[in-house]
Each structure stands twice: as C-alpha cells, then as structure tokens.
Amino acid sequence: MTNANAPNVSDFPSGSLADLIATLQVEAGLEKPRSLPPVHLWNPANCGDIGLEIRRDGSWWQDGVRFSREKLVRLFSTILRRDPGGHFLVTPHEKVVVKVEDAPFVGVRVDRHESDGHEVILVTTNVGDVVAVDEAHPLRVVSDRQTGEPSTYVRIRGGLEARLTRPAWYELVSLAQPDPGEAGTMSVTSSGASFSIGQVA
User: Fold this and answer.
1) 0.85 cut: is pTM over it?
2) Residue-range definition of the domain harbouring residue 48
3) 34 in a domain, yes or no?
4) Is 131 helix (H, G, I), strand (E, B) or coil?
5) How many domains does the chain have?
C-alpha cells in the first residue's frame, strides 16, 4: 500500500550501475566520486573523547554546538568506523569517540534502476554515499515498542547504517509488493534478493 502524498520514485533506465551511482553522488553535492580511506586497516593506540555527537536527524555536534560546514561533516563521515565499543573517527594516528543517537547517516533518496535484468534499489545518504540494496547492503526494519512506528535502515559500509527519512521510506513503500512468505507484510526486491519491510498501513 502506498501513501497518497508519497513522492514519485526516480526510475533510471538501464545502463551502467557505476555511472548511475557517480551521477547520484554528484546530484547529492559531491564534487567528485567519493573515495574512502582504508579505516578498517588503521588501529591507532590513542583514543580520545572531544564531545562529538551525531543526532537522529544526521546533524553533527561538538559540545552542544552544531557543525555549520557541510564539507567538514562529509569529510568526517569518510573516516567514521563502528567497532564493538561504539563509533569512532579513525586516522592512522588517533581514534576519537563519536556518540551516535540512532544511525550515523540518513537515507534521503530512493531510486530504482534496471541492471543485468535485475531491479536495483539505490539509497542516497545525507553525506553523499550511494549504495545498491543487496545482500551486502541489506534493509532492516525496527518498530518502536511503544508506538509501533517503523524505522527502516540500510547498511552503508562496515557496521555503519543509514535510517531512511519518511519521504524516502514512502518511496521505498511504493516499490513494495505483498510478501509471499508472510501474510500481511510487504517486501521489496533488489539485486536479486528480497527484503521484508513489515506491515505497511
């Protein structure tokens, strides 16, 4: 079921998935395709806490002051890593604690694409990441225990996830079909895999 006020999902024609991702990154404000440093290889001994926080809306703060420079947020997002002990900014020489209220990124856009005969759903984040939903970048839905309100997440890289905004979630719902494996629920198919998004009112 779709919401009457839901925005239209962008539907890209067949073509190179890599080219589409590069195009979406440019549309998201990146001046060139994102190049990520190898943070998974860095294990500095020094670890500090300078009051960094990422709030539920994806905004970055330090000691109660919001970051005003979007380029700095995007730069920091490339060296963010999730370890068993939490989230950290990591360089070869230092590791800094980042408190994350929900997910570190926000999924702000959903697009549909045909690639090699498969429908592919792409999610763009607030910091310019673009991922194709697949087994390496799965969707998951968590419902609030008190309100029943669902929150939908997609894995971006490593243990880092993005929570879909409500408009992006409506875009996702518009691509959903009844889940044949579970009555009353809906699912979406991307990259040849199926992902349940739960009950949709």
Assistant:
1) no
2) 39-100
3) no
4) strand
5) 2
